Amino acid sequence: MGLMSEAFSQTLIPVCALIGILFALVQWFLVSRIRVASSGPDSYEDQLIEEDDEQVEGIDSAEVVNKKCAEIQNAISVGATSFLFTEYKYLGIFMFVFGVIIFIFLGSVKGFSTKSEPCTYNEGNLCKPALANAIFSTIAFWLGSLTSVLSGFLGMKIATFANARTTLEARKGIGKAFITAFRSGAVMGFLLAANGLLVLYVSINLFKLYYEDDWEGLYESITGYGLGGSSMALFGRVGGGIYTKAADVGADLVGKVEKNIPEDDPRNPAVIADNVGDNVGDIAGMGSDLFGSYAESSCAALFVASISSFGIHHDYAAMSYPLIISSVGIIVCLITTVIATDVVEIKTVSEIEPSLKRQLLISTVLMTVGIAGVSFLVLPSKFTLFDFGADKVVKNWHLFFCVSIGLWAGLVIGYVTEYYTSNAYSPVQDVADSCRTGAATNVIFGLALGYKSVIIPIFAIAIAIYVSFSLAAMYGIAMSALGMLSTIATGLAIDAYGPISDNAGGIAEMAGMSHRIRERTDALDAAGNTTAAIGKATSHLWLSNPGSSSEGVLLGFAIGSAALVSLALFGAYVSRAGIKTVDVLTPKVFIGLIVGAMLPYWFSAMTMKSVGSAALKMVEEVRRQFDTMPGLIEGTRKPDYATCVKISTDASLKEMIPPGALVMLTPLIAGTLFGVETLAGLLAGSLVSGVQVAISASNTGGAWDNAKKYIEAGASEHARTLGPKGSDAHKAAVIGDTVGDPLKDTSGPSLNILIKLMAVESLVFAPFFASHGGLLFKYL
């Protein structure tokens, strides 16, 4: 037994979760004090005007600008809310149907028997019937699905609530605008982290009322929570990604290349759809994605622990080690956020990017200390863990290293992503230079960069896997993944900060605000942009040492954690399915391996073609409006934004179904028809292949995006020789950026979900596959 009592651990977890929720509400209250709509002569926004910012360049009065901001914000919010509600109607049907499938498959393992069964791992004891596992796995699936949907929806509402407020605060200075955007991101980050932890904690304790001492059955059924979270994340990521990239490609190709108008220009018919897409794709999609990773890594660790000495001896505090790590992570992230918003004041543009980078470093260092404390207080000095049928003796300091190496490996992967996708470094500058000879050489250089960027992250993941498995078997790998996600609240705050700032810049452009305000919002956007481009700022605001990939770092966390989570779930599946060894030399395993390696390519082909088809319709509609609506390009007539929003909405809802079906049905078909060994090969193949494709696709698209912004900024002598906007090199860069959009924002991020979702689905259905799977081989 560890030093921490069961009562204290039972109290610590919900208290930390509630502190996280309370902190998020405080941040929301502080942001809500900024009024968007005018409410009288003494309203708060009248105090926001800094000196004569709104009296230059013939800009409208503060009242008029404020009203425009409110109108634009409302249009973005209504569009995003409408899309998500429509999407969630489809997902509601899927949740019900797939929940019934889970019940039928798992209930049929023992013929829907209500008799207690001998335990699989805790020999000599009786466990609850298979029917109970079916019922509670279904309930856990629904709980995980609802929590994932809630995470995405709350994130979107917060982002659309904060975008115009960030724009208005930019009139008071860059520091105020930064704090508003970052606090708004923190609301999403802390709500998601705390809600995910609290719902999982409450679910375990409610399920325990029935399962009592049957912890093996309890934690096996709780894996449905991870399945629910990731299945919703898949559709959210794919649907949101198709939506945002269809609008983005349409707006860029016609607006920038053909009409030579600025990004976010109100004359562009696709501009509202583009801003809506930032919220439904980058905010709601990423929120659901990281929640799914958190839920799955927690469930994998809990399941392995339940069949080890923790579960067999009913050591609740040690059993709750994954949840306590997440609880401490919330407190660490709270301290980090307070430092960002209340201790260190941002006064100049050059301080924004170091501040974002500092959040990740501070939270990582503090979390390392927290992991050490939890490991020595919660875990016994020596214990045993399940290791594929054997018992591995492990010490508490082994787990400290497992969690810590995951935490630091994520940071390494993130900073490598930054190096390959930030225009402060030579890889992206080389891609930009290749635009001198046209789009073809730009595409060649970008693809080469993406492939090369895979090398170091794969070595980092490999080292984390080897060390974690050597020290603590599959439980060590699951905890390494959870360590990578332990600072999820700070990560999501930075992730949400990016699209909020992007929307703020768009609102400033559409509202016709002064050049100085647009420079500030552009600088905010650049620091948190997917590629850390500072390119939207004008040359005199260019940072002398730019280079951060705040969201790129997060992408590294997402990819790295997906690989580790998938491997941990794979190990749990192999154990639960009763597979002794996964031998790739056997035909059953090898055919699964090679087909699994193909799946990420099939999935990517589906999602990229979906973006292309939707973008084609968007381009045609934007061209039609420019050609048939006199006065549109002159700015005397308002575009038909609604039609473009409808094109993105209809396309994304229709096109998200085939890729989603591919991921959800493949494990069911493979396990039922070909058996547990073929499915094991399939999971291994998709994991190995999917991680490589995800990293290369995301970094290739990111590099093309930043190469374009490098040319647009013209901040260096080299960049000025390639520009200005509208030059042949710039047009080649825009084409590269457009090709990369579905890679970095749809296919690449969605592959994270593919590899971990198939693994957790296989784990949930493992009892059925072990009992009734392999129908084809039985009759051949």
TrEMBL record:
Please provide the record's keywords in A-Z order.
Ion transport, Magnesium, Membrane, Translocase, Transmembrane, Transmembrane helix, Transport
Q: Where in the cell is it found?
A: Endomembrane system
A Pfam family assignment: H_PPase
Predominant subcellular localization, coarse grouping: membrane
The catalytic activity of this protein is classed by the Enzyme Commission as 7.1.3.1
* Enzyme's top EC category: translocase
InterPro entries in the record: PPase-energised_H-pump (IPR004131)
Report the PANTHER family cross-referenced here. K(+)-INSENSITIVE PYROPHOSPHATE-ENERGIZED PROTON PUMP
Name of the featured protein: H(+)-exporting diphosphatase
Source organism per entry reads Coffea canephora
Source organism lineage?
Answer: Eukaryota, Viridiplantae, Streptophyta, Embryophyta, Tracheophyta
